[in-house]
């Protein structure tokens, strides 16, 4: 059998193998490019264009008009209120299930429900709250006819600031439970035992040990809940229509195709929302990284 000699100057080169292990992420990469990166770039470019395609700052400067600034301020207040209440209530529920004395079997159904409820939004959520707390909703009618409590006379209106905030809590609280549960699981038993050996009470343990460790996770989750509420569009439009002047509704009015609409001002409104939510998500990522260092 003859073998082919290989000269020293012509050494065999290793074959370049296709990175097949990257094929699995190609659909995800295509999805991100088509439905996240490209629309975002379209919004950013459109915010600095005139209808004829020329460059301008007028659209961005238009965001500082009193009516648009008022819409941003209302959106920020609703997002902040729902984020704070969602964090407080969600943390209490998660702590009661994970660290409290509640039966262990409650945890799995609670987390399952939270996973579903955190993604329940839009028209179905708006209809559910209108059917429950609307002017002729089930709970509204029951309180008025059976207990003599008229929510309208008490000043409650579902199509208002607090009405939209309460509606947002339906998905804000479950999202808080899902995110804070791993942080609560990360509290080591040795920390509590060490605090007890040193004479610390339960209140001192939470104030001096547990709460400082959980604080970055809580603040980071609050930033994420703020961004989640600030970017909610379908629920606000389906619930309040045009009765509440918030940014998503103002944005919808500019891009829906009416002759009075200004699509490029709509791009600027969306660009402003991207900036606000980007800052909130950046805070979440930074605080989340700090909390993970403690949990390792």
Automatic annotation (TrEMBL):
- So where does this one cross the membrane? 20-45, 57-74, 80-106, 118-141, 161-184, 205-226, 232-253, 265-287
Q: What is its main location?
A: membrane
Where in the cell?
Answer: Cell membrane
Gene Ontology annotations of biological process type: transmembrane transport
Q: Supply one GO CC term from the record.
A: plasma membrane
ABC transmembrane type-1 domain location: 72-284
Membrane topology category: Multi-pass membrane protein
Does the keyword field hold Amino-acid biosynthesis?
no
User: Which controlled-vocabulary keywords does the entry list?
Assistant: Cell membrane, Membrane, Transmembrane, Transmembrane helix, Transport
Q: Which family does it belong to?
A: Belongs to the binding-protein-dependent transport system permease family. CysTW subfamily.
- According to UniProt, the name of this protein is ABC transporter
Q: What organism is this sequence from?
A: Agrobacterium albertimagni AOL15
